[in-house]
Specification:
Strand order of the largest sheet of chain A: 2-8-7-6-5-3-4
CATH architecture of the largest domain in chain A: 3-Layer(aba) Sandwich
Mean pLDDT of chain A: 95
Number of domains of chain A: 2
Largest interface: A-B, 84 and 83 residues
Number of strands of chain A: 13
CATH superfamily of the largest domain in chain A: Type I PLP-dependent aspartate aminotransferase-like (Major domain)
Order of helices and strands of chain A: HHEHHEHEHEHEHEEEHHHEEHEEEH
Largest sheet of chain A: 7 strands, mixed
Number of helices of chain A: 13
CATH class of the largest domain in chain A: Alpha Beta
Oligomer: homodimer
CATH topology of the largest domain in chain A: Aspartate Aminotransferase, domain 2
Shape of chain A: globular
Chain lengths: 399, 399
C-alpha cells in the first residue's frame, strides 16, 4: 500500500522526534532537562480551571463553529487593550494556532502557490503548508542582523506570480526577533504593492524584553484586506494543552470562506473555550509579569551561553527561544548523542537541532534551539550540562 | 485579494448554514426543535466531568502528539470488547473524527487522487477531501435498497488508476444503513483486488436497532494494511464538544506517516483526553442502553413520518438519522421557509436539506435529513410541526 507524496515529503518534527529515544532512556532511570519544546513551565492561571469547574450543563455539545460568543468577546477585549479593534465577525476561534494557520493557508493558497517566510522559521508552519501542497520560499536572515529582515529588494526578488502571502511570526520563534516599526512598514509596502496577504502569528505578543514595545500588525492602517492575525492561549497563558487559538482579520470575504472550514470540522473544544474566556480576560499586566519572569530566564540562559567556548547566540528580544551556533556541523547527531550517550549523575539535556528550521539542507546544521521555560537555577544547571556535553562531544568527534 | 480555488469550491455546511437565520428568528422570540444536527441530547456521562475535575496539575501542557497513554489503553480496551485487538502503536488520538479523517486523507491521497464513497454521504468528509484537492466519486445507492451497496461490478466500474480508497461510514450517516457481513466481504475483496485503502468511520458503532449486530471492519482478516478505522467519543458518549477521536490501523508504515501530522499540530486537547479515558472505559452495556434509548426515538419518528402524506422514509438500522423523501424538489428553500416563515404558536423546526449529501446537483434535492436526538414526545411534537409545514408549504408553492 502506498502513501501520498505529500506525506512522504514531510519530516518528523525536529522538536518531537527524539521522544521515543528519550522515553527509552527515562525507563532506564535517566532524567532530562528539556530545552527542546516551547512548553511554558508557569502555572496555567487558576481562572482557567475554575471556569471549567463551573460548567454546569450535563452535556458537552459542539460549540458554534466560529466559537462561543463570550470567547469572541474576550478576544475582542484582548485586542482592544492593544488599541486594536476587531468586530465579532472578524474573529474565528480555532483548535490552537495550528488549525488557524492551516485554515488560513487553505483559504488563500492552491497547490503550487507560494508563501514567503523568514528563514529560520517555526517548523510546523511549513509542515502545514506542505500538507496543502503549498510551496514555501525562504527570506534569508542572519545572526549578524539578529535575524531581522533583509532589504525590501531582497524580499521582492523572491516574489513570483504564484506568491500569495508573507508569513511572519512576531515575536519570532525560533529567533526571538521582534520586528521594528520600520520593518512592519516595509512589509506593509510589499504586501500592498504585490497584493499579498500578510499572515502574522502573534502568539508571543507581549513576551518582549529590554523595554522593547511590539505592536500588532493589525494596528497598521491600510492593510485591512491583507493582514490575518493568528493567535493562541498556549504561550502567553501557559495553556498549551487547551488547544484554543484564533484567526482575526478584517477581510470579511476571507473570513466567510474560512467559516466553511470551521463548519466542516464542527467546533473547537467546548470546555477549553469556556476556560479560555477567563484567560483572554486577564489584563495586559498579567502578560507583562510573565514577560518579566521570562526575561530573568533569558538572562540566565544567555549569561551561561556566553561562557561556553565555541558557542554564539543572538540575544532574543522576545518569545522564549534562542538559537545557538555550536561548534558542530551536525547538531541532529549531537542532540541524539545528548539523549543516548551523555550523562552527568544520570542526567542530561534535550535540545532541538535547527536544521529543519531552514529549507536549505546545508543551513542550520550547526545550530540548536533552546527554550528558556524553566526557573533560572534549572536553566543554569542545564547550561552547565550543555557546556560539558559540548566539550565531551568535541573530544568524542576527534576520536 | 483573491481566495484559493479550493475554498471557493467548498459549500457552506448544509447542517449549519441556516444558523444565522435561526439566530435572527430566536432574537424575535421564535423557538425551534432542531433536527438538523447530530447533537445527542443524552447526558455526557458524569465520569467525563469527574475525571477532568480530578486533574491535579497546575499546568495544562501539550499532550503527547499521539495521545496520552491511558487514553490509548482505554481505546484498546474498547476494541477488545468487540474482540478486535490493536497494539498501542496502532492507535493515534485525534481532535475529533474530523481531524482523523483529515489526517488519513492527507496521508493516502495527493491532489487529484480519487476516493469512492457511497452517495449520499456525511458531507463534511467530502469537504475535508476537497480541502486537500482530492477528487470524490460517488457509489450510487438507493432508498429502494435501503441505501445498501450496489453490486461489486458497479463499484469496480468507478475505480481508476488514481483511486486510492473506499470511504465508508458504518453505521451510515445520513442513511442509517448498517452494512451486512456479505457487503463487508465484498468491500474486502475490492480493496485487496484493487490495492485500495478501506477507510471506515465507525463513530456510530453499537448504535444499531432491531437486534442487528454490526461488526467493526477491523475484525476482517487479511485486510491489515488496508483498513483504517476512524472513531470518536462524540456520538456514542454524547460528548461532541470534547473533540476527541482516534485513528486505528495495523498498517504501521501508514501510522508512522500520520504521526508526522500529529506531531506538527502538537496535540489533541489535554483535559478532554483525560475525560475521554473514562468514556472509553464504559462497558458495551452502556452503549447498548443508549442504543435502546435511540431505538424508541427512531420508532417515534418513523411512526410519525409514515403518517405524513407525500413523505417516504427508509427505516434506519443504526446511527440516529433518517433521510426523508419529501414532495418538494428544493428542500433547501423548504428548510429556509421553515425557519423564516413557518410557525405554530411561535415555534418551528430545523431540518437539514440533503442536496449537499450528493455530488450530483440534481440528486437529493427532494430529501431532508432528520436527527432523532430528542425525547420521543419532543420528536412527536416536531413531526406534527413537520406535517403542518409540509401541508402549508405545498399550498404556499401553489400560490
Amino acid at each position: 500500500m502506498q502513501y501520498s507524496k505529500r506525506i512522504l515529503d514531510l519530516k518528523d518534527s525536529p522538536l518531537r522526534k527524539l521522544t521515543p529515544l528519550i522515553d527509552e532512556q527515562k525507563k532506564k532511570g535517566k532524567s532530562f532537562i528539556h530545552f527542546n519544546i516551547g512548553q511554558p513551565d508557569l502555572e496555567t492561571p487558576s481562572c482557567f480551571f475554575e471556569a471549567i469547574a463551573q460548567y454546569s450543563h450535563h452535556n458537552v455539545p459542539y460549540a458554534p463553529s466560529l466559537g462561543i460568543t463570550p470567547l469572541i468577546e474576550a478576544i475582542q477585549g484582548y485586542f482592544q487593550e492593544q488599541s486594536v479593534s476587531f468586530q465579532k465577525n472578524e474573529i474565528i476561534v480555532t483548535t490552537g494556532s495550528s488549525e488557524a494557520i492551516f485554515f488560513v493557508m487553505s483559504a488563500i493558497c492552491d497547490p503550487f502557490d507560494e508563501v514567503l517566510i523568514p528563514e529560520p522559521f517555526y517548523v510546523n508552519t511549513v509542515t502545514f503548508m506542505k500538507q496543502l501542497d503549498v510551496v514555501v520560499k525562504g527570506i534569508p536572515t542572519s545572526v549578524h542582523d539578529r535575524y531581522h529582515l533583509p532589504s525590501q529588494a531582497i524580499i521582492e526578488s523572491k516574489i513570483t506570480p504564484r506568491t500569495k502571502a508573507l508569513m511572519i511570526t512576531h515575536p519570532n520563534n525560533p529567533t526571538g526577533t521582534v520586528y521594528s516599526y520600520e520593518e512592519m512598514l516595509m512589509l506593509k509596502e510589499i504586501a500592498i504593492k504585490h497584493h499579498l496577504y500578510l499572515v502574522v502569528d502573534e502568539v508571543y505578543t507581549g513576551i518582549v524584553y529590554d523595554n522593547i514595545t511590539s505592536r500588532s500588525f493589525a494596528s497598521l492602517c491600510g492593510l485591512e484586506d491583507h493582514v490575518i492575525i493568528i493567535d493562541s492561549v498556549s504561550k502567553r497563558y501557559s495553556s498549551c494543552g487547551a488547544r484554543i487559538g484564533a484567526i482575526a482579520s478584517r477581510n470579511h470575504g476571507l473570513m466567510r470562506e474560512i467559516g466553511k472550514l470551521a463548519q466542516a470540522r464542527l467546533s473547537a473544544p467546548t470546555l477549553d473555550q469556556v476556560g479560555a474566556v477567563s484567560l483572554y480576560q486577564l489584563s495586559s499586566s498579567f502578560i507583562e509579569s510573565c514577560a518579566s519572569t521570562y526575561e530573568k530566564r533569558r538572562n540566565a540562559m544567555i549569561n551561561s551561553l556566553l561562557e561556553i567556548p565555541g558557542c554564539h547566540v543572538s540575544i532574543p528580544e522576545g518569545a522564549f527561544y534562542c538559537l545557538v551556533d555550536t561548534p558542530f556541523n551536525d547538531t541532529e547527531a549531537f542532540a541524539r548523542w545528548c539523549v543516548e550517550e551523555f550523562e552527568v549523575d544520570n542526567m542530561s539535556i534535550v535540545v532541538a537541532p535547527a536544521q529543519d528550521f531552514y529549507l536549505e539542507p546545508h543551513l542550520g546544521r550547526h545550530q540548536i534551539r533552546l527554550a528558556f521555560v524553566h526557573e533560572p537555577h534549572i536553566i543554569e544547571q542545564g547550561m552547565k550540562l550543555l557546556a560539558q556535553a559540548i566539550l565531551q562531544y568535541s573530544q568524542h568527534l576527534h576520536f
